[in-house]
Amino acid sequence: MDGITIALSKGRIFEETLPLLAAAGIEPLENPETSRKLIIPTTRADVRVVIVRATDAPTYVQYGAADIGVAGKDVLLEHGGDGLYQPLDLKIARCRMMVAIPAGFDYANAVRQGARLKVATKYIRIAREHFAAKGVHVDLIKLYGSMELAPLAGLADAIVDLVSTGSTLKANNLVAIEHIIDISSRLIVNQAALKLKREKIVPILDAIASVVGSGAVESCAVKS
Ligand code: ATP
Ligand code: MG
C-alpha cells in the first residue's frame, strides 16, 4: 500500500493527537467515539487512521500494518521496542507510574524486614524491573482491570499503576509512595516504512515535531 496508515487508540490519545495531525494537514473524517468504523479516512486521500486498543498500537506498527502510531511510554516499556522507531515524545497523555499502598500500610518497614510483597499490576515488566533494581522481593500478580481494588480486597499489598490527579487513589484510601517513571505518549514509526515511504512520512513527522515544539525529528538523521 502506497498510502500512510496511522494507528491510534480511542479516548485521550485520539483527542490529544488530533491537533498534532492537523498540523500535517491530516483530519480524520469520522469520530471513533460515535462511529463504529475501525478504519477512518482523513482529509488527505493518502492517509487513513486505524482505531486500535492502546496496548495494540506497537504491534500494528511493528508488523507494518500501520506505518505510524501513538503509544504511551508505559505500553512501549511493556511491549519492548522491537522494530519500532521512536522519534518523538508528543508530551500528551501525561501521567506517572507509581507504587501505591493502602493508607496506613508500613511499606518501608515491610521492605526493611525483607518481606515478600504481593504487588498487583497490569505492568508486570515495569514492576519487575523497578523492584529488582531496589532489591525488593515481590510476587507479581497480573491484572487487566482496576488495580485499586486489589489491596482493598486483600489480593495484594501494593499496586503499580498510572496516576495523574491521584483522585482515584484517594477515593479508595490508597497513597502513592514511589515514583517509578514519568509517562507520556510517543510517536512510533515502522522502520521499514520510514525507508520505503520516506518522502511521505518525514514531512508528517516534521509537521508534528514543529507543533510539539521539540525541534528536529531524530528520524531524519537515519540513513535510508
Ligand atoms: P482502556 O482504558 O480502554 O482499558 P487503556 O487504559 O490502555 O485502555 P487509555 O486509558 O486510553 O487506554 O490510555 C492510553 C494511554 O494514556 C496509556 O497507555 C497511558 O500512557 C496514558 N494514560 C493512562 N491513564 C492516564 C491518565 N489518567 N492521565 C493521563 N494519561 C493517562
Ligand atoms: Mg485507561
From TrEMBL:
Heteromultimer composed of HisG and HisZ subunits. It comes from the Bacteria. HAMAP family: HisG_Short (MF_01018). Its main location: cytoplasm. It is found in: Cytoplasm. The keyword Nucleotide-binding applies. Its EC number is 2.4.2.17. It catalyses: 1-(5-phospho-beta-D-ribosyl)-ATP + diphosphate = 5-phospho-alpha-D-ribose 1-diphosphate + ATP. It holds the Pfam family HisG. Belongs to the ATP phosphoribosyltransferase family. Short subfamily. One of its GO terms (cellular component) is cytoplasm. Pathway: Amino-acid biosynthesis; L-histidine biosynthesis; L-histidine from 5-phospho-alpha-D-ribose 1-diphosphate: step 1/9. InterPro entries: ATP_PRibTrfase_cat, ATP_PRibTrfase_CS, ATP_PRibTrfase_HisG, ATP_PRibTrfase_HisG_short. This is ATP phosphoribosyltransferase. GO terms for molecular function: ATP binding; ATP phosphoribosyltransferase activity. Keywords: Amino-acid biosynthesis, ATP-binding, Cytoplasm, Glycosyltransferase, Histidine biosynthesis, Nucleotide-binding, Transferase. The keyword Phosphoprotein does not apply. GO terms for biological process: L-histidine biosynthetic process. Lacks the C-terminal regulatory region which is replaced by HisZ. Residues 53-209 form the ATP phosphoribosyltransferase catalytic domain. Catalyzes the condensation of ATP and 5-phosphoribose 1-diphosphate to form N'-(5'-phosphoribosyl)-ATP (PR-ATP). Has a crucial role in the pathway because the rate of histidine biosynthesis seems to be controlled primarily by regulation of HisG enzymatic activity.
